[in-house]
What we know:
By secondary structure, this protein is of the alpha+beta class.
Amino acid sequence: MKKVHLLIIKAFIRPFIVTFFIVMFVLLMLFLFKYIDDLIGKGFEWYVILQLLMYAAATNVAMALPLAVLLSSIMTFGNLGENYELVAIKSAGISLQKAMAPLVAMVVGLSIAAFLFSDFMLPVANLKMGSLLYDVRNQKAAFLIEEGVFNNSIPGYSIRVKQKLQTDSGDVLKDIVIYDQSKGTGNTNVLMANEGEMYKTEDKKFLILKLKDGVRYEESNGKGYDPRERLTRFNFKETEQRFDLSSFNFKREDENLFKNNFQMMNLKELDSAEKDTRVRYDSIRTLGAKSLESYYKIYYGTAKYGSAVGKTGLNFKKDGVLAGLDSAQHAAAVTAALDNVRYAKDGLETHTFQAEEFMKTIRRYLVEYNRKFTLSVSCLVLFFIGAPLGAIIRKGGLGLPVVVSVIFFLVYHVISTVGEKSVKEGSLSPVMGMWIAIFVLTPLGLFLTYKATVDSALFDTDSYKNFFKKLLKRKEKNIQ
């Protein structure tokens, strides 16, 4: 038994590691394709990109781990079945359940590790990646002057050059136009030069433009109307413009600003935040109910609108609360009632909107709370689908197992995504929506385990061909 268990464990570990890193690589490539426009042309250091990829890899574990368990379990038992090792194990009197026992224990341990990872490490990884990705996406692109295009990257300036030449000393620019908008007066300060040289200071903090043979036009508002004071022209042989490049430096925001996000909390923080939000939700509902009490007023024969005080023979229950009022008093009462209804409706809509927003927040907390558990349980469920499925199809390698595992994982992912969306919309309870994929696939795993135990030819095409041949023969006999 020990040798058989050791054989099965070795057969499982290698494809699990390989498939896990393959899936992680594919998910990282998808991540890069998604944010490639935010990374290119911004002058990031190599370690910034490496940090972002490392945090993204940690956040992708929740998707890569269940798929790797499913694919590796199909490959493991598919290889054992294809090489007749599984037949030899069963002929030795070892059932499929006993052969699967060490892998079940290993997957249980893996599921516990996945739960601990999702509760302790995943929130930190989400916080690090979320804050870094926010800074990366808000980083300005590196300063670049293109020919014939106005560049507005430097705050307060708009620069255009007609021609740009590369030299050993730096970039030589031809036909330069600079609009100085730093004073907030619009395009009232314009500088034109025939030629210039562009370079950065040694500390990379300033951009220097040495301009030659140009003119500056500056428009100013003088006192009263005097044309000689409104436009000033300066001719120069050589001048220097200095631009501050501090806005292009990579700046990190405080990570504490992102801590209140749903995906960046552990179980304890989610539970505490959900309870606090529920208290606020209950208070909003109570406050909304109390605010409506002042609008529910019924006046029976009072002097509120000059009603029938002292009049006799009035039946308010039969003729209504407006009995005994003249036309003016009747109109005043109706107008006041309509105003009360309008105020009550506006107040009710405001409190209802606030209550719905709090309920959406509560549902998001509950979604993330249940996600901590579904990650670990999904590894177990997909293992009990993959292991018997591999024993049934008896095909190893990266061919048919990959196709089958991707199909089952897509079914699991689509069901869980639809359930999560339904929870956020309020059409399903958080427990039902987040666990619906587990509830659907667990009976399938039990069914496949039973079929593998009794050596069912569930995916044997020859058995289906023979079955249909028998049906055709019976029909031919009946016709004859």
